[in-house]
Amino acid sequence: MATSFSPFTTSIIGSWPRTKEILIAQRKLRKGQMEQSDFDDLIERETARIIKIQDDLGLDVIVSGELSRDNYSSFVADRIGGVSMMSMDDIVDYIDDKKAFEDILSILDVPAISITNAICTGKLEYHPIAVNELKLLKKYTDKPVKITLPGPYLLTRSMWIPKLSKQGYASKEELGKDVVKILEQEIDNLQKLGVDIIQFDEPVLTEVVFTEGKPRSFMCAALSERKDPTEELEFAKSLIKPVLEHIDRSKSIASMHVCRGNWSNDESILLTGPYTPLLDLFENVSAEMLTLEFSTPRAGEISSLLGDEKISKDHIIGLGVENPRLHEAESTDFIVGKAKEALKYIPKERLFLNPDCGFATFSNRPVNKEEFIINKIKSLVDASHQLQAEYK
């Protein structure tokens, strides 16, 4: 049976800043200057350390920190056949509207060589994606654990570049079908080992609804051409729903994480808008848990989500109560206040507490530092304990 969680369960979203040693090792490994076994040993040591920090600070659900990943989506290029790792600098040659693409990079201050993307260049072939991360988690903690994976819509959108991807698939839709199959195989392998929460990240959903009629957002390497937003959300739903439905709910919670971008400390360039345009999708993709950004005004009012009766009745909410990009820790009063606002709509048993997003979406461009993250976790855990005492 799936783990039973207490009210106000705490966790972080997924990513943790990599040390300088890991970043150097990643470069050496890619250049063939380091043995895979030596890299794996380093990742295990650092993962064990990150797990201990989370455990000692009192988080209820533990994550791996995603330390071996280049970024939270492109790392699949190392773990799925038919996918190639490319920098934005490499990709620009294959983009039809080069000027628009370069404008996006310029507006959002993203160096073209500093961020990589996984591009489909042939037929996909399954290999384990996060199975080794789960093995490390279970080796170093007895607490409930969460595995994070890029969602099927994010992967399909970001991997599809027609001039390259048509070597394997006639269309983005055909690619999407195989992405779903790949993730279903991964779910099977994760659940065989035992995992308490499987979280799929779908930040590109906000790029669909919050940039209509505005300059396009880079939004986590969402490169392929969008259709009409309504049509695009239907496409997203067709990919997300079968993947989440594939999760055996007697073994794991099926979670979907959505934010508004996490590549910069400059809040002014990140997306803004309430979840209202996504309510229909949220209601119909079979996500048992919605893990969402709510600590900043950019996310809109909590009522814009939980005022929807189907959402408040049927879902666990992972409430974002901390901005991962700010160094200063949120006060316990702020976190408790956000939680109490949510409690107007949902029972305490279905309220989890977490930051808005990860702390290091891109390996070489983390949005925060470990010393500040530790203070944020302390604040998160203290607020949870205060709420548990008040709502016995």
TrEMBL record:
Signal peptide (residue range): none
CDD domains: CIMS_C_terminal_like (cd03311)
Cobalamin-independent methionine synthase MetE C-terminal/archaeal domain span: 8-365
Pfam family, one: Meth_synt_2
Source organism (scientific name): Companilactobacillus mishanensis
Annotated protein name in UniProt: Cobalamin-independent methionine synthase II family protein
InterPro entries xrefs: Met_Synth_C/arc (IPR002629), UROD/MetE-like_sf (IPR038071)
Record-linked PANTHER family: METHIONINE SYNTHASE, SYNTHASE, VITAMIN-B12 INDEPENDENT, PUTATIVE (AFU_ORTHOLOGUE AFUA_3G12060)-RELATED
